[in-house]
Each structure stands twice: as structure tokens, then as C-alpha cells.
Amino acid sequence: MKVEIKPEAEATLFEIAYFIDCINTDGAGDRWIDRFIAHLYSFAKPNVIYALCNNEELAALGLSCINFNDWIAAFVMDGDTLVVRKIIRGSFLL
Fold first, then answer.
1. Where are the domains of the chain?
2. Could you report the per-residue pLDDT of 11-61, keeping only the tens digit for each?
3. CA dist., res. 64 & res. 73, Å (int)
4. CATH code for residues 2-93
5. What is the pTM of this model?
6. Cβ neighbours of residue 34 closer than 8 Å, sequence gap 6 or more
7. Spatial separation of the C-alpha atoms in residues 32 and 78, rounded to whole Å
């Protein structure tokens, strides 16, 4: 299985990593990205159908959601690829 991160989500990922680097030691942001992507791969399984997000707007777009700490990855399964379309701070969905 593969994981693809769309440009909008990738930009958010790099912004998060930059912020983490600013408040922690150098490289902390890169380590966070590595853990985030490993978490995504744990959901990239063949023949699994995920429920739509609880958020109405994301569900209307046909997106499913994965939680990672305070962040939500909104994705779709496209064949054998988990495609991340958005990364959103969980508190923004309240």
C-alpha cells in the first residue's frame, strides 16, 4: 500500500514541522513528520473501507479521517493508495 500527500496537506505538514522546530530542538519537526507518516501507513491497508469523517463538510467531500495527536488527516482511498487531502488541527473542527 502507498500513501500520497496532496500539495495542500503537504504544505500544512511542513508548517507544523517548522513550528515544532521553533519550539523544540532542531530536527524535532522532521521526527514528528516521520511519526505522522508512519501512522498514516498503519491505516493504508488493502480492502478496508473507512467511515466518513464526523465533520459534515469533510464527509460531504467523501473524506475519511485519522486522528494523530491534535491533528486530523482527511483522506480518501484510491485503489491501493491512501490519499491525504487535508491536515487540520482537531480543535478547528469543533
1. 2-93
2. 999 999 999 999 988 899 999 999 999 999 999 998 889 999 999 999 999
3. 8
4. 3.30.2310.20
5. 0.89
6. none
7. 25
